[in-house]
Write a sequence for this structure.
């Protein structure tokens, strides 16, 4: 099984790149964030993505997420929806038997930092509920928090910068404490250049001066079967790179 997540920063601007990437990667689950499009604004190639059951959850030119599950890849037909704490089209969930996958776009916090912290607490409660119920849980997406100082290039580290603050990092750790594993760091623990987002100036991406804010988090039962979790910085023109996890 292959699960991928990507903040595309506008699916219409990235449509050709996305379709080429999904054809090449053939993931079983595709989580997208910041699609910046309502369902009515999507063309046929996206709204009826060949080979996938899709749920596009966007409201226009801001935010928005989607989940795409490969047809026939799961024994139980997936059901889509969004949890009660969703707002600004930031979360979509797919359930197939005991597998629960969430495509999540956590608020940046620049306009309302307290709301970001509240959102993270609600995400934590949601994950804890499903894990305690015995489900296999995957939380994917742009969580807009760098887990540790190591997840920010030294040139980008700034005291009290949003995305690097101790209180939001503490909430991230509490989310993991529900029983989730940060797959990229678990499988590549010594990589000091493991970043997923780069500011779009001064060739920061080419120089790999970035932040790690995009994640695949999996519950313990799934994490034990994870083989790789790879960042693909060479893919696309979004300011974020896809993250792709492969499981036995």
């Amino acid at each position: 099984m292959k699960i991928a997540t990507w903040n595309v920063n506008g699916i219409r601007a990235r449509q050709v790149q996305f379709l080429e990437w999904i054809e090449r990667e053939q993931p079983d689950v595709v989580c997208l964030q910041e699609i910046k499009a309502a369902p009515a604004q999507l063309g046929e190639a996206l709204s009826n993505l060949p080979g996938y059951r899709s749920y596009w959850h966007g409201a226009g030119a801001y935010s928005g997420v989607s989940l795409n599950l490969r047809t026939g890849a799961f024994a139980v037909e997936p059901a889509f929806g969004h949890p009660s704490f969703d707002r600004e089209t930031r979360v979509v969930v797919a359930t197939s038997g005991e597998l629960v996958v969430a495509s999540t776009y956590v608020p940046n916090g620049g306009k309302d930092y307290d709301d970001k912290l509240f959102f993270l607490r609600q995400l934590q409660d949601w994950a804890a509920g499903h894990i305690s119920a015995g489900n296999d849980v995957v939380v994917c997406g742009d969580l807009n928090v760098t887990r540790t100082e190591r997840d920010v290039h030294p040139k980008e580290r700034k005291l009290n910068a949003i995305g690097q603050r101790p209180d939001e990092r503490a909430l991230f750790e509490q989310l993991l404490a529900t029983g989730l594993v940060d797959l990229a760091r678990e499988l590549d623990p010594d990589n000091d250049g493991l970043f997923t987002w780069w500011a779009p100036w001064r060739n920061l991406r080419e120089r790999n001066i970035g932040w790690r804010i995009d994640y695949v988090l999996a519950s313990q039962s799934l994490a034990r079967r994870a083989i790789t979790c790879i960042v693909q910085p060479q893919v696309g023109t979004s300011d974020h790179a896809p993250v792709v996890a492969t499981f036995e």
Q: What stands out?
A: The domain at 2-247 is CATH 3.60.10.10 (Deoxyribonuclease I; Chain A). The chain is about 20% helix and 25% strand. The mean pLDDT is 97. Residues 113-132 form the longest helix (20 residues).
